[in-house]
Amino acid sequence: MTYSNIEKHRLTRVLYWFLQWTWGIVQNICGLVVFLILKVKNPNNKLIRYNGAIISQWSVNGSMGLGMFIFDGHQNKDDHEETIVHEYGHTVQSAILGPLFIPLIGIPSFIWANFPYFVRLRKRKKISYMNLYCEKWASNWGERVVQNNRADEVTNGSITV
Ligand SMILES: [Zn+2]
Q1: What spacing in Å lies between the alpha carbon of 3 and ligand 1's midpoint?
Q2: How far is the CA of 88 from the centre of ligand 1 (A)?
Q3: 43 CA distance to ligand 1 centroid (A)?
Q4: What is the pTM assigned to this prediction?
Q5: Is residue 139 part of a domain?
Q6: Most buried residue, 23, 70, 123, 157, by most Cβ within 10 Å?
Q7: How far is the CA of 152 from the centre of ligand 1 (A)?
Q8: CA of 114 to the centre of ligand 1 (A)
């Protein structure tokens, strides 16, 4: 890896971390609380560092990205990697949108995912879950960051995430 790429990755990680703990602190603290509860309940819970975020496993049927924390309930599913990239996109939204994350992303996403009306609507009209702006957006941002890092890994050897 070239010096400038190491610097670029380090700076991006520092910026990601800094934004989560300042501008995005509300949802980051919520994520930290969930993270700590899971850690206390299961000290052997496997943690993975992922492009600056921390992934922990949970037994909920579904995954969530909150602040810099990703909770992974899709371990054995076919779309596992895609889901992690998507949830990572929510963590990037948290860093960039800060206090706007909860009203613009968190609440609409929660309602879209869980309210029976929307669950039925998606089923009846065969609408993809990813149709909602904040979901489409999370996948796009997640893919962009992860692919950038992967491209650097390929050209410059492995990087520490
Ligand atoms: Zn989502």
Answers
A1: 35
A2: 9
A3: 27
A4: 0.89
A5: yes
A6: 70
A7: 26
A8: 12
What local confidence, expressed as pLDDT, does residue 75 receive? 81
| 161 falls within a domain | no
d(CA 102, ligand 1 centre) in Å: 13
13 CB-near residues (< 8 Å, 6+ apart)? 52
**How many domains does the chain fold into?**
1
Q: If you write DSSP's letter for every residue of 73-117 in order, what string do you get?
A: --TTSTTHHHHHHHHHHHHHHHHHHGGGHIIIIIHHHHHHHH-HH
Range of 127's domain?
5-156
**Is residue 149 in some structural domain?**
yes
β-sheet bridge partners, residue 47: 56
Alpha carbons within 13 A on the beta-carbon side of 113: 12
Q: How far is the CA of 157 from the centre of ligand 1 (A)?
A: 31
97 is a domain residue: yes
pLDDT string in tens for the chain (161-residue length): 566 777 888 888 999 999 999 999 999 999 999 999 999 999 988 899 999 999 999 999 889 999 999 999 988 788 899 999 999 999 999 999 999 999 999 999 999 999 999 999 999 999 999 999 999 999 999 999 888 877 766 555 444 44
